[in-house]
Amino acid sequence: MYDWEGECIMSEMIKAVILGVIQGLTEFLPVSSSGHLLVFRKLLGLSEAGLFLDTMLHFGTLLAVIAVFWRDILDMIKKPFSHLTLLVIVGTIPTAIIGLFFKDFFEELAVSGVTVGWEFLATGFIIWLADRVKDKGRKEIRDISFGDTLIVGTLQGVAILPAISRSGLTIGGALFQGIHRKTAARFSFLLSIPAIMGAVVIQSADLLGGKAEAIGTAPLIIGTIVSAVTGYIAVKWMLNVIQRGSLRGFAYYVWILGAVIIVAQFMGKF
């Protein structure tokens, strides 16, 4: 007798691993995680991750960034009125406002994927511009103004668009504001914590509302672990790249990807 149940579980495991790797790596690299998830689902014939799995994949990336910046997080908890803590709070406000008011609009674009190619091109342009100014910044955390963080937070809100990279826009925005490149990456990732946490909370509320899909425990655990491990690797690597290397490679990559998607859409293949 053919083991349909075993095949179904294995299929869920493979799906969880693939989506976990994509979510973990692209959440923190300036190439857009949501855009890549959309593209890979279409290319590999994968269905939507499902709300439960998607929530756990985001939780995995949250664990990754916490693991890297736990000292900063602990310090912010101990000093709730420190300059860094207030910067993160202020930067989160425009992100939350944009997310709440334009949630339905962003979800429609994510489902249709009609603008994803153009958004990859826009992401590449921002990264390319940011790379040109990356050596000019001198501001450290203590020098960042609330005006600076509002700009970066607004860009993070705009990055809710499917193929606009959150890390690309926030790091780029920080560099444009004259923030030192290492500090720009650190601030970008710290600012991602409440954003990812907010997404997890909102999705968890939907789960409690009865929107959970049926999925095995093993795929959920594996997907979360894979997302966390690959996310940790991506954060550490990105910190090294922004400090010592160039961002242009990411720009060229998303330009090529965006152009291919636009051509494929024009030919009716995407």
Would you write up a description of this structure?
This protein has twelve helices and no strands. The protein is an all-alpha fold and 270 residues long. It has a domain at 76-195 and 234-266. Mean pLDDT is 85; it is low at 1-7.
Based on the model shown, name its key terms.
mainly alpha
Q: Can you write the helix and strand succession as a string? A: HHHHHHHHHHHH
Outline the biggest β-sheet: none
| Overall geometry | globular
Computed CA radius of gyration, to the nearest angstrom: 19 Å
What share of the residues does DSSP label as strand, in percent?
A: under 5%
Short précis:
With 270 residues, the protein is mainly alpha-helical.
Write the layout of secondary structure elements.
Elements: H1 4-28, H2 33-44, H3 51-68, H4 70-78, H5 83-101, H6 103-112, H7 116-133, H8 146-158, H9 166-176, H10 181-211, H11 217-244, H12 248-266
